[in-house]
Each structure stands twice: as structure tokens, then as C-alpha cells.
Design a protein that fits this description.
Layout: E1 5-9, E2 14-20, E3 27-33, H1 34-42, E4 48-52, H2 57-66, E5 70-74, H3 76-79, H4 89-100, H5 113-144, H6 154-167, H7 174-206, H8 209-214, H9 222-232, H10 241-247, E6 252-254, E7 263-266, H11 272-288, H12 294-302, H13 305-326
Parallel strand pairs: 1-4, 4-5
Antiparallel strand pairs: 1-2, 2-3, 6-7
Helix pairs in contact: 5-6, 5-7, 5-9, 6-7, 7-9, 9-11, 10-13, 11-13
Protein name: Transposase IS116/IS110/IS902 family protein
Pfam family, one: DEDD_Tnp_IS110
InterPro entries: Transp_IS110-like_N (IPR002525), Transpos_IS110 (IPR047650), Transposase_20 (IPR003346)
């Protein structure tokens, strides 16, 4: 007999439950407080639990999986078409239950604590890098008002700012000079924090077999490898490498009708961070590699560099999926 499918609309304090009894067809919709959720599922037989892949979904998926339930996560975009009438918690839970009944529904892999922790490290680093860029840009703009033009590049700008503050010590008001020195101190602190996080990411990569295997792919560095393993979760969740590339938004957007296929630019769906890392890695391969494959050289001769970079990023995503799904190691194509 098929297990009961129970849908949960997640929240911080009140969770909405929706399920249908298989024997009687009775529809149950009830609200549970946070402290009631685990006891409710602990006292029920093994069921199929479905939730939207939103905040705290992976945490609750791990908790309920330890209780013996089969937990599935559905992307919010696949649930939205099934919301009837006005939006509320009960309607959302019913929509999640309805979406889970579709035979072709695609589910999101549940991430482990390690994978989610690595993603958190990437998010912290990304925010610190943004703050550092903002600090340097502000320093550049403030000194420009006093006739100082800083060179391009973060490190060169900081060194030039130090020299400019030393030379303008007698001209700048003391309060501004002290504040700019504090700005430089904050930049040094940000550099140290980012370096510590990158070292932790590197240590995790060294101890993870999957990361080491996909790091052999040209253009896949420490950040891309650790982010890819953490984002993909279980590679078998995707049916093919193309489906993984489509999940990252690296395939053309279609607008086809009447048998006429119309392809546009890439869809840019899915994880923006990982897609950006893959495209930057592809650009580095194009710029730094002296012995590019003949097919890639031909493409560069007739298409813009950015188009070729996206195509190479697509291939890198497919290769990552193949190595993770089949447990293989990377083998470079023979030189032509």
C-alpha cells in the first residue's frame, strides 16, 4: 500500500499540515506549533512528507528522515500553479500536496549538514567580499575629491591610498585622515577574515573525495568545486548532465511554438553563485590555456568570447555531474 503523503507549509512558529487518508479519502488540514511538529510525525507510521525547498526545509527534512519518513522537497516555482484562490497557509499546504501527486514532478535533493555548512561559508565569504569592494570604492571616491586618483585593482588601490594619506597628512583635516586610516584598518581586517574562510574551504576540499575529483577539470578551482558539491547535493537527483546545466540556467531559453524552435539567451535560472563561478572559470581557461581544443578554437573564431565562455561553462557543469553521478575521475581529451 502506498504511504500517506503529508504536505507541510513551513514557517517559523506555526506549520500547516495537509494530507488525505488513503483508506477513507478524508482530507485533514491542521496547524501545528513548532513544538508539536516532531511529536506529531514521531507518532505516525512512515509516510511521504513533502515540503517547499525554502528556508529551514533541509533542516526539517533531516529531522523527519531520522524518524523514518520519506522526505521530498519541491521547488517553490513548481508549487505555485497549484495554489487555489487566495494565498494562505492552508492553500499553500494543499498546493504542495497536489504538486507532489504529479507523476513527472522533480524534487530537490536534501543536503547534509556538511554541505549546508559549506554553502554557509560561501555565503559569508561572498558578503565579506562585497563589503570589501564597497569599502575600496568609497575610499577611491573620497580621495578623488582631494585630487588623488587611485589605480585599478584592489591591492594597488590600497597601497596607493596608504601612500596618498602619508603625502597628504598636512593637507587633509585631521578628522578625515583618522577616519580614512580606520577605513584601511577595516580593509585589513576584511582581508584577514576572507583569508581564514578560504583556508577553511580549502581544508574541506582536501578531505572530500568528490571535490578532489572534480577539481581536476580545467577551470574548476577550490571555490567552484566546493560550491558545486554542496549545491548539487545528490547528483542522481538530476537525470542527466543537461538537466543539471538547465538547473543552473546555462541552457538557452526556449520560446517555441507550432513546430518552430526559437532559442534565445541562457535562462539564468537556478543558482546564480555557482553559475557565475563556472562562467568565470571558463573565461580563465580561454584566456590562460595555450593549447585549446580545435573545436573550441573554431568556435572562438566565429562567436563572441562570452558566448564561448558560457558554452564551456555548460560543458563543465555536465562534466561535474557525470563525475559525481558515476563516481569517475576526470580524463582530459587527447590533444588534436
Amino acid at each position: 500500500m502506498e504511504p500517506t503523503t503529508i504536505a507541510i507549509d513551513l514557517s517559523k512558529r506555526v506549520f500547516q499540515i495537509h494530507y488525505v487518508e488513503p483508506e477513507t479519502g478524508a482530507i485533514h488540514s491542521k496547524a501545528l506549533k513548532r513544538a508539536q511538529l516532531v511529536p506529531f510525525f514521531a507518532n505516525r507510521p512512515a509516510s511521504r512528507v513533502v515540503m517547499e525547498a525554502c528556508g529551514s526545509a533541509h533542516h526539517w527534512a533531516r529531522v523527519l528522515a531520522r524518524l523514518g519518513h520519506d522526505v521530498r522537497l519541491i521547488a517553490a516555482q513548481f508549487v505555485r500553479p497549484f495554489v487555489k484562490s487566495n494565498k494562505n497557509d492552508a492553500a499553500d499546504a494543499a498546493a504542495i500536496w497536489e504538486a507532489a501527486q504529479r507523476p513527472g514532478m522533480r524534487f530537490v535533493a536534501v543536503k547534509t549538514e556538511g554541505q549546508q555548512a559549506m554553502l554557509a561559508m560561501h555565503r559569508i565569504r561572498q558578503q565579506l567580499v562585497r563589503i570589501r569592494v564597497m569599502q575600496v570604492n568609497q575610499l577611491r571616491g573620497l580621495l578623488y575629491e582631494f585630487g588623488v586618483v587611485l589605480p585599478q585593482g584592489r591591492r594597488a588601490s590600497i597601497e596607493a591610498a596608504k601612500a596618498a594619506l602619508a603625502s597628504l597628512a598636512d593637507e587633509l583635516p585631521a578628522m578625515l585622515a583618522d577616519s580614512l586610516q580606520d577605513q584601511l584598518s577595516r580593509l585589513r581586517g576584511l582581508d584577514e577574515q576572507i583569508a581564514r574562510i578560504e583556508q577553511r574551504i580549502l581544508d574541506w576540499r582536501r578531505n572530500d573525495d568528490a571535490c578532489k575529483r572534480i577539481s581536476e577539470i580545467p577551470g574548476v578551482g577550490v571555490l567552484t568545486a566546493t560550491a558545486a558539491v554542496s549545491v548539487i547535493g545528490q547528483a542522481t537527483t538530476f537525470r542527466s548532465g543537461r538537466e543539471f546545466a538547465a538547473y543552473l540556467g546555462l541552457v538557452p531559453r526556449q520560446n517555441s511554438s507550432g513546430g518552430k524552435i526559437k532559442l534565445g539567451g541562457i535562462s539564468k535560472r537556478g543558482d546564480v553563485y555557482l553559475r557565475t563561478l563556472l562562467i568565470h572559470g571558463a573565461r580563465s581557461v580561454i584566456v590562460s590555456s595555450r593549447h585549446l581544443p580545435e573545436r573550441l578554437r573554431q568556435m572562438l573564431s566565429r562567436r563572441p568570447t562570452n558566448v564561448v565562455a558560457v558554452a564551456l561553462a555548460n560543458k563543465m557543469a555536465r562534466t561535474i555531474w557525470a563525475l559525481l553521478a558515476y563516481g569517475r575521475t576526470y580524463q582530459a581529451a587527447p590533444a588534436q
